[in-house]
Amino acid sequence: MITDGAYSGQETQTLAEAKSTELITTALTGKPIDSIFADFVMNEDGTKVLTCPMGHAPEKTTYYPKTGMCRSLFKNDCCANCPNKEKCKGKQQRKNYAVHVSASMVQRAKYLEKISTEDYVALTRKRNAVEGIMSVLRRRYHIDDIPVLGYLRSRQFFWLKIGTYNFVKLLKHNKRVKSAPNLKIA
After folding, report:
1. Model-level pTM?
2. CA 47, CA 12: separation in Å to the nearest integer?
3. Any residues with CB less than 8 A from the CB of 113 and at least 6 apart, and which?
4. Is residue 129 domain-shared with residue 73, that is, in the same domain?
5. Are residues 103 and 123 in the same domain?
6. Per-10-residue mean pLDDT, the chain, length 186
């Protein structure tokens, strides 16, 4: 099922999996998350960071249940020369580096990696095409303002608008094919 980004979240993913449905959300809302957070390893309930993307275990992890964030402290020698230091947004303390991570950040980063593949990009384009057709029908063909009364007449009016849209698309397609001299039609 392809949905808008407003329907993303762990709860909806779990409900979709319970129904044996793959939920693909596009145009995700919220703060953008760096892909490096997908490589953090957390325990099952998301209250402790086990390892960072470079495989280092934190000295101490503090979980804040109100925000769902974990504050993990890593040794200076682990983070000082790390190539991912800027991406992790680790803040240097006196004796160590503090990194803030949550289970939802890790899940979201993993999901962003998953939907950035070619297969998922093609699926998100399908959703955009469906919404684009409805937008054109509303803006250009004014299907929201049907000037007739009755179910049958309204239905006929609507299908005539759809037919007009398809006919115009066909004309534009033929025009494009004729203007492309090297294009061969099989």
Report:
1. 0.61
2. 21
3. 35, 38
4. no
5. no
6. 73 85 73 83 89 90 91 87 85 89 87 81 74 83 86 91 90 80 58
